[in-house]
Write a structure and sequence with these properties.
The chain has 18 helices and 32 strands. With 743 residues, the protein is an alpha+beta fold. The protein has a nine-stranded antiparallel beta sheet. It has a five-stranded parallel beta sheet with strand order 6-10-9-7-8. A five-stranded antiparallel beta sheet has the order 18-19-20-21-22, covered by helices on one side.
């Protein structure tokens, strides 16, 4: 669509199509609203300060048009009617479906929730942070898929026993598919708790043998060492004899002091008929299962009702071949019935006993029998193992950083004049400048008893990093200015001249450029939803700052082609300068505009837009062509000194990282590599795209780029504590490198 009068293209079909596909988590109404906001922002930016002016009435009319160009954001259909239409279409295709009228099962509710989220939700609400599910095997994967979609960024505790899935056709028969859906985070865990404290050894062995008749993966239980009587199996000639034996068995158990007894039948009709017969001889709990209270006494139950209950003694009544044919569903029903018994289990029957109980389990029938295993979880972030040289380099860098902090915030340093050194006569000028030591340095106080030349040499050996002046502030100050500390002088003549060039800062990362990271390090940790929506914006002389609930975002124009993007976590935090250029050296024209929906920073060569709703940074050419965007659903994260900036790189985009040599380029298309230069002199990692831009990460230690969609597409740094990168626009690689070298 183009703007009237000017003919300027505001949004093209490709942009709209890409936006709708990429914003997969937004509802239909949400996409309509966001497209309206994007279009309105582009319209307002276009008509503000342009040569072509619009009369107020015409501008107002166009604004009303673009506010609802994609619709008013309201879908006026009925979610329920849409669901019914779907079911009717499935029925027409010959599938067996039940159309709900006045009652809904869990799968109806899941389908309705999913449709609502996909169509109508335009203001996502986080309904829960953690969900606990018991008897998880009773629900099919459709319910879990919907739950996972609706409750994003939620953690789970899921418990159950797949061997007790009596709804074999749609429940869970193993954990594997659910594990692939839910257990994707670094700290997610899965464990089989095998020990059974309910049944005796004899009952557990009997139940495990039942399981082995099934053709599915099983998790056999291991009982605590508590023995009881052997499970009784006895046949009778007819129903009268069976009933008499059942009454006798119940009375015998009652005499032994068992308070809860269950008589398990195949279905509700058989249970009701059996209860009517038994109550003539023994007290039976109310036979109406809708009103019955589960407690002491004799209960007559259909097998499906026993799941989740336990009884002192269980009588499995008449499990014949006809009632329990040999299939996986019946195996699980009988397993549930058998494991309800704490102390006693008896099987009484007439006719032919089901083969599940009468025969030995066929060997190798089930797919897999899971052995005993402890709680397992995904690898946590591995502790990096450093060589002795790498450890020394890291300790030196930490020492410089600590000294820098001590110089800025700590107590004043003690300055020892030559005449204060024992053995040094006043006026002896064999050393120039002053020897400096912290108050807390006991080793330095001890050294003060030695001669002047010895103390200078020992100070350099014990305290100074290799090739760094004994005036520690000089080297540490480079961390802030990139040059020498003002007024710093060498401590000892002959060690380093005052005009000598200060050494480069070293990158202490243990990873060499181009090294391949472990896959487990690439997986993102589970975390709560990060709120980057812009609350306010403020323009200064050198930069624009925006605040969200998560932290402060700063956009600093460095040159017309280079923009610095910085972010610190916390609303009171401040962006710190790095070893590289913090702001523009020379002034040049740039502007900042704020609309209701976005903040725009614009130079002659580059446009940077931050939409207030999500806080993601987007980079455009002056003709409004999108070059790069941070991810809209989660643009960034900082955790414990580590940072992640998530970029929306397209599948066709080619990325390459600049090596140390002029001809060295590392292909990063669909790859993950370390792009920092561990063990080398500090320099910014540079990544260049074939779309005409580069990203230079202001990272002093480890920097990793992940362009593998399975794990995410992001730039990760460790040790700096703030997100800091330069976006460089250039027509080709040489132009980008030229701009990069100026930083």
């Amino acid at each position: 669509m183009r703007l009237e009068k000017t003919g300027t293209l505001l949004l093209d079909a490709e942009y709209i199509d890409n936006y709708c596909r990429e914003q997969s988590t937004l509802s239909m109404e949400g996409k309509m609203c966001m497209l309206n906001e994007i279009l309105l922002a582009k319209f307002e930016n276009e008509v503000s300060g342009k040569e072509v002016t619009f009369p107020a009435r015409e501008k107002k009319a166009l604004k009303r048009k673009y506010e609802k160009y994609f619709g008013d954001g309201k879908w006026r259909g009925s979610i329920f009617d849409l669901y019914l239409q779907f079911l009717e279409q499935q029925a027409e295709k010959g599938k067996a479906v039940e159309v709900p009228e006045n009652s809904f099962d869990v799968y109806d509710l899941a389908a309705l929730a999913y449709l609502y989220k996909r169509i109508k939700e335009n203001d996502p609400v986080r309904e829960a942070s953690h969900v606990v599910i018991d008897e998880a095997q009773d629900f099919g994967m459709m319910a879990y898929q919907v739950l996972h979609y609706c409750l994003r960024d939620c953690t789970y505790t899921i418990m159950g026993d797949t061997s007790q899935n009596i709804h074999f056709s749609y429940g869970l028969n193993d954990w594997e598919e659910l594990k692939k859906l839910i257990l994707t985070g670094t700290y997610d865990a899965f464990g089989v708790l095998r020990k059974s404290y309910r049944n005796t050894v004899e009952i557990s062995d009997f139940a495990n043998e039942i399981l082995r008749h099934g053709d599915f993966a099983i998790y056999p239980v291991e009982p605590v060492l508590r023995h009881g009587t052997t499970v009784q199996k006895e046949a009778f000639a007819d129903e009268a004899a069976l009933l008499a034996a059942g009454v006798q068995k119940i009375k015998a158990w009652q005499e032994q002091g068992y308070e809860t007894i269950a008589v398990v039948c195949r279905d509700e009709a058989e249970a009701a008929a059996t209860a009517r017969k038994l109550k003539k001889y023994v007290p039976v709990v109310e036979e109406d299962l809708e009103t019955a209270e589960f407690g002491e006494g004799v209960m007559v139950l259909p097998v499906a009702y026993t799941k989740g209950l336990e009884f002192d003694a269980v009588l499995l009544l008449d499990p014949t071949e006809e009632k329990y044919p040999e299939n996986d569903g019946q195996v699980k029903l009988l397993y549930v019935a058998a494991t309800r018994a704490l102390h006693e289990l008896a099987v009484l029957y007439t006719g032919k006993l089901t083969g599940i109980l009468a025969k030995k389990a066929p060997k190798g029938r089930h797919n897999q029998e899971f052995a005993m295993e402890t709680l397992t979880k995904a690898k946590e972030y591995e502790k990096v193992s450093l060589t002795q040289k790498e450890a020394r380099e890291e300790n030196r860098a930490i020492g410089i950083q600590e000294m820098d902090e001590r110089n800025s915030h700590g107590p004043k340093r003690i300055v020892i004049k030559p005449e204060q050194i024992p053995g040094r006569a006043p006026g002896n000028t064999s050393t120039t400048g002053t020897a400096v030591m912290p108050k807390s340095s006991t080793g330095m106080r001890k050294a003060a008893a030695e001669t002047g030349k010895e103390i200078a040499a020992k100070t350099m050996q014990q305290r100074a990093p290799e090739g760094v002046s004994a005036v520690f502030a000089g080297a540490a100050y480079r961390g802030k200015t990139g040059g020498k500390a003002p007024g710093s002088r060498p401590a000892t003549a002959g060690i380093q001249s005052e005009k000598a060039e200060q050494p480069e800062h070293m990158n202490t990362s243990p990873y060499a450029f181009g090294a391949i990271p472990e896959n487990e390090l690439l997986r993102m940790k589970g975390h709560s939803r990060i709120k980057c929506a812009v609350k306010w914006a403020k323009k200064g002389k050198a930069a624009v700052e925006m605040a969200s609930m998560y932290g402060i975002l700063r956009i600093t124009p460095i040159t017309p082609e280079v923009i610095r993007i910085s972010f610190v976590k916390g609303v009171t935090a401040k962006v710190q300068d790095t070893y590289w250029k913090p702001k523009a050296d020379t002034s040049f024209p740039w502007s900042a505009k704020e609309s209701k929906t976005a903040v725009l920073v614009e130079t002659e060569k580059l446009r940077v837009m931050v939409e207030k709703k999500d806080g993601a940074v987007q980079f455009f050419t002056p003709d409004h062509k999108l070059v790069l965007s941070e991810k809209r659903d989660e643009p960034r994260m900082i955790d414990g000194g580590m940072t992640w900036t998530f970029f929306d790189w397209s599948g066709s985009e080619k990325l390459k990282a600049k090596g140390i040599l002029s001809t060295e380029w590392l292909d990063l298309t669909a790859k993950a590599r370390y792009v920092s230069f561990g063990g080398k002199q500090a320099r910014m990692p540079l990544v260049v795209s074939n779309r005409g831009y580069g990203i230079a990460a202001a990272a002093s230690r480890t920097a990793l780029l992940c362009n593998v969609r399975t794990f995410g597409t992001y730039l990760h740094t460790a040790g700096d504590g703030q997100i800091d990168y330069y976006f460089i626009l250039g027509k080709d690689r040489d132009e980008i490198i030229k701009q990069y070298k100026e930083l």
